[in-house]
Structures are given as C-alpha cells and as structure tokens.
Design brief:
Residues about 1-45 have low confidence and may be disordered. This protein is mainly alpha-helical. Helix content is about 70%, strand content about 5%.
C-alpha cells in the first residue's frame, strides 16, 4: 500500500514534485488493478465505501479518526465482509490507513507542496473530460446536474458546509463518471481525496455569501448547456483553484 510521508518537505517548483505526483498516480492505478471488480466485492461493499468516502471528503469524518469494524457493521447493518472490502477500497484510494493493532484511520491530506501539483492535474482531467463530452451531453446529464444544483442551493441557504462540499464534489465528479474511463476517474478520486479540505477552505475564504458557490456552478452548467466550448472550458478552469 502506498502512503505519503508527511514529514517530507517537497518543493513543488522543482521537477521532483512532478515526479512524485506521477509516481503517486501510477501507484494508484496499479493498486486499483489489483482490487476485486464490483461484482466480486458486491454492491453492499460499494455502497458502504461510497458513504464513508463522502463523509471523509466533506469533513464529517475528521482526519485521524479511527474506524472500527464494529462501528461500521452497526452503522450500515452489514456483515464484516462488506466492511472489510470497503475499507480496503478506501485505503487504496489513500483515504484510509490500515495500522497494525489499530484498524483503519482516516489518512492525513497531502502536504502543501503536493497540493500545488495536484490542482493543475485535476484541472487538466476535468477540462479534458469536458472537451471529449461536450457534444455528447444528454438530457440525463443535465437532469443529474440540476439535481445536484438543487441540493447545493438548499445547502448554501442553510450554510451547511459539509453538504456544499459534497455537492461541489458531485458536480465535478459527474464529468469524469460520464467520460466512462475508469482509470481517469480513479486518478481524479485519488487527487480529490488528498486535497479534500480544499473545497471547504475555499468556500470560507473566497465567498462572503455561500450562495455565490451555487451561482458559480449555475454559470458553469449554463455554459455546458449552451456553449461555446471554449467559454465553458475557460470558466471551468477558472473555478478550479
């Protein structure tokens, strides 16, 4: 299993950081290929992993929190098998660390230097996905984005930072899901997991009114719908910071 050593000092302006990021992504893909398929794991394990993942990404479960089999089997009403498979999936994604005699612990985020490398990679993945998909977006795609934005609007009105972050992630993740290239989605998931607090931190620092977050995503969606592609890509790039 591959983990970031947080004691390392990394200068992102040097070529070493780029090599580190490339090695990190390559390792993630290799680990992913060794994981069982969805059919082998079973849908219940997938659901458990997805819910825990959302809770970690949105900050509902904090960095360093310990997750035990007993807690998770009780929470989800499943046996130990699906819980173990879910934990293994999340460890592969870098969200959990499995420690001897301790169980699973929520992994720390990437150091600041690595974050500066991750953001441009994430931006490249999403703009690539948009460019590939732009002429193929369907009514169902826009229906899904509208559902996300409806939930985001309610979260912004309530100033629910956890739910805002969840919908923010869901909005952008749909591009990679829709692209139907599992390796790219795996890379995106890994990168976002390593900078998960970025979503909440950006919300607090950039927006005096939480509704600005909703309006920004509404503007992005309208350009997805009407184009032109160049303007949609430009705005998407601009808002991934």
């Amino acid at each position: 299993m591959f983990f970031v050593d947080n004691s390392m000092h990394i200068d992102y302006k040097s070529s070493k950081s780029s090599k580190f990021a490339c090695a990190y992504v390559t390792n993630a893909l290799q680990e992913r290929k060794r994981m069982p398929t969805g059919d082998a794991v079973g849908i219940r394990a997938v659901d458990v992993a997805e819910q825990i993942r959302n809770d970690i990404l949105t900050g509902r479960i904090k960095e360093g929190a310990r997750l035990t089999e007993a807690q998770l089997t009780k929470r989800f009403g499943v046996g130990r098998g699906p819980v173990r498979e879910a934990v293994q999936r999340l460890a592969t994604q870098g969200l959990l660390e499995i420690r001897p005699n301790c169980g699973a612990v929520v992994a720390p985020e990437a150091p600041k230097g690595i974050r500066a490398v991750i953001i441009p990679i994430r931006r490249a993945l999403e703009t690539y996905a948009l460019t590939e998909l732009f002429d193929e977006l369907t009514i169902e795609d826009f229906r899904r984005w509208e559902q996300i934005l409806d939930e985001m609007r309610r979260a912004c009105e309530a100033e629910d930072l956890h739910l805002i972050a969840e919908m923010d992630i869901a909005f952008h993740r749909h591009l990679l899901q829709r692209l139907n290239q599992p390796d790219l989605l795996a890379i995106w998931d890994l990168l976002v997991g390593r900078i998960r607090s970025h979503f909440r931190r950006t919300q607090r620092s950039r927006c005096r009114d939480m509704m600005e977050i909703y309006e920004e995503h509404r503007a992005i969606l309208e350009l997805f719908r009407t184009g032109p592609l160049e303007d949609a890509v430009r705005l998407l790039e601009e808002k991934i910071d």
